[in-house]
Amino acid sequence: MRGFTVCGQRFDLRTVLVLTACLVALAVVPSAANATPGSGVSGTVLAQGRAEGTVHITAKGRTDVVVRTLTIEPGGSTGWHHHPGQVLAVVRSGTLTRTLDDCSLEVTKRGGVILEPAGARHRHVGRNLGTEPVVLYVTYFMPAGSPLSVDEEAPDCKDGAAAAGR
Description:
Mean pLDDT: 84
Strand order of the largest sheet: 3-10-5-8
Low-confidence stretches: none
Number of helices: 2
């Protein structure tokens, strides 16, 4: 029987004809999995941002998921705290300045995404050093029954950055 060679692979004529017939059938036969249009559904984008790196959310066991708006007025501060679970936030407006446990600063502007790790070793403070309110859309992934945040002492930073967030 006649055959064909494709990329060094030998195919007989019967195999080529059967595969061609299958492809044609798939192209013309309507699929049972066709999507149906939705109806009666609407959505509102509350905030949109872009994470600059890979975002990994992990939660073990029963998890409380809480979504809320957080507003920090000009000159305001969250106080030093940590979260028992991970927190994902999008900055809706303003600029958030966070001082982290190692005394480094992170500044996140409108449209920025923040992923805060869980645990006391990740204490931080968020401050609004600008002239307009900072509005955050925050999603908390907390172990069931735990608080959203736990107050912490400020670390001893040499440059005074931590003291400013007390």
